[in-house]
Amino acid sequence: MKLLIKNVKMVDAFSSKDGGLLIENGRISRIIETHKSEGQEAMQQLATTDDIEVIDGKGLTLMPAFIDLHCHLRYPGFEYKEDLESGQRAALKGGYTTLAAMANTKPVCDSPELLNSILTRSRGLNLCDLHQVGAITKGLEGKALADFKGMLPYTRLFSDDGNTIFDEAIMKAAIEAAKVMDFKILVHAQPETEIIARDIKLVEELKGSLHFCHISKEASLDLIKAAKAKGLNISCEVTPHHLFAYGLDYKVNPSFRGEGDVKALLKGLEEGHIDMVATDHAPHSHEDKEKGSPGISSIEVAFSMVNTVFQENGLNTNTLSRVMSYAPAKFLGLNSGLIKEGLEANLLLVNLDEAYKISTEDFISKGKNNPFDGAAVKGRVKMTIKRGQMMFQHINQ
Ligand code: NCD
Question: What parts of the chain have a pLDDT lower than 50?
Fold first, then answer.
């Protein structure tokens, strides 16, 4: 099947072009720019070819689909909060075609058998491309390293997210293992600045590498900036909610911070010191939230939240694409995250200026725990395409 998307502005991390593109066999086969007459003629010809389906994206922006390095899909064990299907359908609505799901499930994702069974089940759904994160320590207890070697055929991502590894010897052993076996460690740091400072020291000492999850403080960013300036192999992410609001009394790890922190984080993204935005989509039931479970369900409105804040603070859509598609693709070693001939056609049609109000009632996610219910946002995902196939379409009410 061939699919032509025409009449769009194509925006990725590095460029913005008017025109459209052709998708064949799930890949971007041809990019057509229409600022010149040759391009307009080529487009016209393709649009009237018999076996090509045409999508007219007039007024919309075409972007690479988003990639989320950090979400919680709650399978297995907490399916009443979310499951592979509800979480991935919510993700597709939010413009994500690739996800990395954290290991704090029941049982914990710390065995090859469990990883294999989750991935097999997920493939059967044929929704998002799933990367299942494995636990760094057995049972996320921070005491003994998990079976990295056994899990490596199924994942190259390891994290105890939700729990901090306080034992320095364990952290050192994990960094060493990641170096030898070539995998990534995603760090949950709480207390944030103290643990980040300790771990940067370990990376320097061991010549290792680490990725810091959901940083929220200017002080953390300063430490990371200094470490990167020294040439250390460090990366980090920030969540949509820590950019969207400050000072909010809503239980989430890490907590909402101050206005100065938000400004610093935005600057960090613009200047490239913060590598990416990752949702930390953390769905909970109403009862669990009442009992104090931390977290925000956000994957289907993450783009709207980030786009709103970026527009208000003068950050452009190329930067948004860099931090939501290109950087996570690069981190995962995927040949995607850009609009480029030959790449898999994981794409979005978005309306960057559509204004609407977040409504948790409309969430596909089982988790309605989002403090921004009713908040005005700008920017909406209109269509999500994975390998040339339409996976989600927003129908205007
Ligand atoms: C996470 C969750 O619910 O799994 N919650 C959150 O507030 N980010 C775990 C965690 O990081 O505490």
Answer: none
